[in-house]
Amino acid sequence: MSQQAQQLQEEVQRRRTFAIISHPDAGKTTLTEKLLLYGGAIHLAGAVKAKANQRNTTSDWMEIERQRGISISSSVLQFEYGGVQINLLDTPGHKDFSEDTYRTLTAADAAVMLIDAAKGVEPQTRKLFEVCRMRGIPIFTFINKLDRPSREPLDLIDELERVLGIRSCPMSWPIGSGDRFRGVYDRIGQEVLAFQTEGEANVKGRLEAIRIAGLDDPELFKLIAGPRKDLDEAQELHATLKAELELVEMAGDPFDLERVLKGQLSPVFFGSAMNNFGVQRFLERFIEIAPPPTPRNTTSGPIEPTHQKFSGFVFKIQANMDPQHRDRVAFMRICSGKFVRNMAVKHARLSKEFKLSKPLNFFGQERVIVDEAWPGDIVGLLDTTGDFRIGDTLCEGPLFEYEGVPRFSPEHFAGILILDPMKRKQLKKGLDQLSEEGVVQIYKQRGFGDKDPILGAVGALQFEVLQHRLRAEYTVDVRIEKLPYIHARWVTGPGLDPDYFERREDTRCLEDRDGFPVVLFKSDWGLRYAEENNKALSFLKTAPIVTTSKQRR
Ligand code: G4P
């Protein structure tokens, strides 16, 4: 094997690219922060915070980021742990929940599903989970906030199967919760991690796991009794732990790497991100189990990440990242080969050659030129000429395209009214570009051409974002009029009659940008009724994939 091939193989092997999926408030920011502290900055955990609080400067933080090789961008956090290069993709999840969040998942090789132990599976988690499921990527579960009163762990595990339909394999098991939280039992290493608050853990450095000889080991009992030495309580907790673990052993699924990698079995961990408890153990196991970049499908068949020629695809476009310069950045996930600055690559959709002279990484507000990058890494490309679209493939050698990034079914719909009809052209341009970025989706009313489109959005606030950006970037004022639909489905199959859906009071049939019929529904009931009464048709939650070069424009 040539030296280059060997280096490529090594770099691929040491990469893990993943995203955290969760419902707001489950603790994603907290967990991310703690994971970053392990990126070489663990000893600074307290110091970083203290500094930031005292002086409130961002430059110190950025300096630390730089020294530690942690890069903070709005799209990806990169850090190294134990020789492994980790790319943690940011999935906007709060008010800015949008199609972007879904699309980012197409760039990930694994997902960490973060669940609040008091709340269980929540709606946003479910939606994001479905996208991961569709891609068949491995899904790890971290059940958080055990330091607070929590639901029974068996109930939480059961919910994963009931609500999400995924089998799970607890890697650890909690001992009590809330005030009675004593720690977790690591089923793999047969060890106990005794719960400490972050303060204690920081003083002691790494949490020491205590190996026990079995569930009847007196050492385990001592650990559960803890400093309070409440023996009655310890007895109860011990008995519960034993009973629950017995059930898990009997009725649970054994760990099976192959099933984990296919996304059929989720390894589950318990902890408390705020207290930095269970996070390091989780990170270590995650690195061991999660896959490095794997082959991806293209129009020329699957491409291995170790394929010598560089290739990648654009999964996200962000405009105005720097308000000083009105710019657009296309985020590219590298899928194969080595990427070097100034390399000439082909843009598959445009069949055009590009020289990528300014590939970027983002350190806080600052941009840093990337000289080289490897499969699994994310690189920002300044798109001054508007050549990039979501789903575009860039590659060396013979042209091919990665399977497109799907469009996901929106749940909010609206009509749009222009206040100054002289600005129709700007409105069209604005809508075209902003829908390219995934701010909203545009549907045509049948027979109306481009006139009076209907807008769809995945997140409720996207219409406000659209209105604001149309005004700020395209000087067009619009009024948005919400429509009472809550589901959209791409409908395909023999005998599809769009008029059938137009005739019904609670549905409408529109066309997406590629001319595919999309039916809107006002209620869950209406959707179910349509599915049950039109068995020959398929009602899809994502748009049929069209490779970009074949897209009708
Ligand atoms: P998000 O990004 O998923 O929305 O969640 P975020 O990390 O902001 O956490 C939401 C709240 O939950 C925060 O509290 C955070 O401190 C808390 N939290 C996160 N992990 C844990 C945990 O393991 N245990 C407990 N008890 N709380 C946790 P907040 O009051 O909203 O903010 P803050 O004032 O604490 O920053």
List the helices and strands and how they pair.
Blueprint: H1 3-13, E1 15-22, H2 28-38, H3 45-55, H4 58-68, E2 71-72, E3 76-81, E4 84-89, H5 99-105, E5 110-116, H6 123-135, E6 139-144, H7 153-164, E7 167-170, E8 172-175, E9 183-186, E10 191-194, H8 198-204, E11 209-211, H9 218-225, H10 231-251, H11 257-261, E12 265-270, H12 279-289, E13 311-319, E14 328-336, E15 339-340, E16 344-347, E17 352-355, E18 359-363, E19 366-369, E20 372-373, E21 378-382, E22 393-395, E23 412-418, H13 424-436, E24 441-445, E25 454-457, H14 462-474, E26 478-483, E27 487-492, H15 498-503, E28 507-511, E29 517-521, H16 524-533, E30 538-540
Parallel strand pairs: 1-4, 1-5, 5-6, 6-12, 7-12
Antiparallel strand pairs: 2-3, 3-4, 8-9, 9-10, 10-11, 13-14, 13-22, 14-21, 15-20, 16-17, 16-22, 18-19, 18-21, 23-25, 23-26, 24-25, 24-28, 27-29, 27-30, 28-29
Helix pairs in contact: 9-10, 13-14
Residues 22, 24-30, 144-145, 147-148, 272-275 line the site of guanosine-5',3'-tetraphosphate.
